[in-house]
Each structure stands twice: as C-alpha cells, then as structure tokens.
Amino acid sequence: MKAEIYQQVTNRIVAMLESGTKPWQKSWSAGSPIVITGAMQRPLRSNGQAYRGMNVLNLWVAAQMRGLQSRHWMTYKGAQELGGQVRKGARAELAFFVGQTTKPGENEGDDDKTISFLKCYHVFNADEIDGLPPRFAPVPAPVDVPAAPVCPHARNATVDAFFADAGVKLSHGGDRAFYMPAVDAVRMPELAQFNSAESYYATLAHEAVHWTGHESRCARQFGARFGDDAYAFEELVAELGSAFLCADLGISDVPREDHASYLAPWLKVLKADSKAIFTAASAADRAASFLHAAQPVAESLAA
C-alpha cells in the first residue's frame, strides 16, 4: 500500500510537470482565466499551524488541480470538533506523517537500527466544510483599484535581513546566479538586472537553499542514491526550498529563466524513483527550517 501511495502522488506531480505546470508555483485564481496571482501560502491545519514537507507540496497540488481557495485542511473529526460538517461528496486528500522508530539489533552486540515509517491520513479543505467558525470563511477576492506606482526594483529590507541574519555570504556581479562551494558564498547579478525585485529574491532563495547543503549546515549528499542524477535532484531540492521560503516570506515565486532546462532531468528522476519527490520535499523543508532557525529570534514551523 505504501508503494502505491508514493506512486500515486508522484504520478500526479509528473502529470502536472509534463503539462507545463509547476505544482509549487501559484497558477490559479478565484476567477477565469487562470493566471499567476501573488505569492503562494503554506497550507494550514485547523489550529493554524503550517503543514511541512511533502504535505505542503501535495496540498498545493490538490488546491491547484481542484481550484480550492482555502489554506485550511483538516480531518473529518477535526471539522466536527469545530462544529463543522464535511459536505456530502467532498473529496479527501492524503496527508502524511513521517516518523522514525528504533529496532534492536538482531544479534547481541549489534547496533540498534533506526527505521523511517510513513503514515497517511485524510484531510478535507475548508471550502468543502459547512458550519466552521468565521475565521475559516473564504477571504473575498481583492477589488481592483488603481494603485500608486511601485518601483519594480525596490529592495525588501525584511527579506534582505532574513538572508543576512541566516549567515548567507552574498556578493554581486556578473550575469549569473550561483552558489560557489569553494568559497561557500552566493553570487548574484545586481537586482536591477532582474525583471523585478520578486524575481531577484526568488532566485536568491534558490541559491540560499544550495548554500544550506554545505557539510557544516544540512550536509546534503545525494550521489550514493541518485548517481549521475544527483545534480538534477539537488536542483529540485533548491526549487522546492525556494518555493517554501517564498511562501513564508510573502514573495511571488517567479520562475527562473533557466528552469525549463531542468524539466527533463526532474522528470527522469521522479519517474525512476517514486519516493524521490518525498525525499526532495523533506530535504527542501530542512533547508528552509535551517534558515528560519538561524534568525536572531529563532522562528519555528509546525511539524
């Protein structure tokens, strides 16, 4: 059953990628036609805590495919405890809990083994639950009104401080964005070279996730498992980690100019290993959590 679940989730993500839609970038709105509208937001539990890891990606995919607007997802029992009732015919989505347990060594003197396990449960979106408290009511779509001109290249002091406080060593110059392992630093073009400030910060988030992979931080090594595909897999981790960070920081996750070149390698990895997207989402979540925890007043995300 576990293998079937891995495959089911992977198939849905592969199908979206093959159709030209990236599941971790917002491409739906309350109206029609479908357009990219603002920053993604992490899905929330009934108590307001944010989902993490693969749950974020899977519920983003579900919302995008089904046109759901609410950020809140809860179990049938959880809805009842809040005085709500799931509508007849409402469709549940899978949520996941990944944990670890220790198994004693088979023979005397053998080391204990740590075994990971996956548990699944069903959650419903608040759009399909009646009688919930007012805080779960849909937020009306904003009314279009003329806005004062905003400089598309204005710096965001809050986001600048986030990456600086995390310890990301950053320099500017040239026309490429990349992480330099030899000097453990991120190199970025000047902000004015990007189409917008949000494009700059989404790219910076991507490179900052690469930065977290250093052995002194998250120590990511994928070669043993993914071999020649390890580079493409690390790019997928950085792509997801950037999406998580953009959601947390209120940034529109603007596609990188080179993202299309990674599509075929990502599909190759996902089709070859149904657990790969779970591994990537977990690694991306650890990277984002590392950057949050490094803030002067450590931030925490719900488990």
In words, what does this structure look like?
With 303 residues, this protein is of the alpha+beta class. It has one domain (2-139, 151-293). Helix content is 37%, strand content 13%. A 3-stranded antiparallel β-sheet has the order 1-4-3. Strands 6-8-7 form a 3-stranded mixed β-sheet. A two-stranded antiparallel sheet has the order 2-5. A hairpin with a 4-residue loop joins strand 7 (178-180) and strand 8. The two termini are 24 Å apart. 31% of the residues are buried.
Task: Record keyword descriptors for this entry.
303 residues, alpha+beta, 3-stranded mixed beta sheet, 9 helices
Ordered list of secondary-structure elements with their pairings:
Layout: H1 2-18, H2 54-66, E1 73-74, H3 76-81, E2 85-86, E3 93-103, E4 113-125, E5 129-130, H4 157-165, E6 170-172, E7 178-180, E8 185-188, H5 197-212, H6 223-226, H7 230-249, H8 263-272, H9 276-293
Parallel strand pairs: 6-8
Antiparallel strand pairs: 1-4, 2-5, 3-4, 7-8
- The helix tally amounts to 9
* Overall morphology: globular
Tell me the total number of β-strands: 8
Number of domains: 1
Mean pLDDT: 88
Instruction: Please state roughly what percent of the residues sit in beta strands, choosing from under 5%, 5-15%, 15-25%, 25-35%, 35-45% or over 45%.
Output: 5-15%
Going across the biggest sheet, name each strand in turn: 1-4-3
Query: Span between N and C termini?
Result: 24 Å
Largest sheet: 3 strands, antiparallel
Helix proportion range: 25-40%
Which radius of gyration do the C-alpha atoms yield? 20 Å
User: Helices and strands, in N-to-C order?
Assistant: HHEHEEEEHEEEHHHHH
Structural class computed from helices and strand pairing: alpha+beta
Which residues sit in consecutive blocks of at least 5 with pLDDT less than 50?
28-37
